[in-house]
Amino acid sequence: MFTDEYFMKMAFHEAELALEKDEVPIGCIIVSHNRIIARAHNLTETLNDVTAHAEIQAITSAANFLGGKYLKDCTMYVTLEPCVMCSGALSWSQISKVVIGARDEQRGFINKHLSLHSKTEIVTGVMENECSSMVKEFFRSKR
Fold first, then answer.
1. Is 55 known to be catalytic?
2. Out of 14, 23, 55, 81, which one is annotated catalytic?
3. pTM of this prediction?
4. Backbone angles phi, psi at 33, to 5 degrees
């Protein structure tokens, strides 16, 4: 059976791919009817583009796959809480569910008192320790 943890492991693998490229290790997948339709990780350094966050890459890929801009009946699994920019894109996409690994107390959208689309379900804390540790270790190694 497919669980949130099962799919978060796939997003975590994407974060590992970002880490291999010396990108901030954030990974993301989008699932529709238990099928992965988009995989992405941060590419801001690779593309020299501040908007190339994992979530934006995945939203674009999923929309292309579905042939439309709305991601109804889709779930995003992301290893770190989306920033304000990504939460805006998620809201416009009308995605049905967002599953977050680790919270981002400084840059995440939740503490900014922002919300996604009114019908979007938000789940936090799936593989929280693993997701948080990867990001913290990445930044520790940069200091």
1. yes
2. 55
3. 0.96
4. 50, 50
Nearest-angstrom CA–CA distance, 125 and 65: 28
Give residues with Cβ within 8 angstroms of 92, minimum separation 6. 69
Say if strands 97-102 and 121-124 run parallel, antiparallel, or are unpaired.
parallel
Is residue 98 helix, strand or coil?
A: strand
Which segments of 21-121 does DSSP mark as H helices, in order?
Answer: 54-66, 84-93
Q: What is the pLDDT of residue 8?
A: 98
pLDDT attached to residue 46: 97
Per-10-residue mean pLDDT for the chain, 143 residues long? 95 98 98 97 97 98 97 97 96 97 94 87 97 96 88
Q: What angle do CA 130, 143, 107 make, to 5 degrees?
A: 55
Tokens 């109804």: give the residue.
72
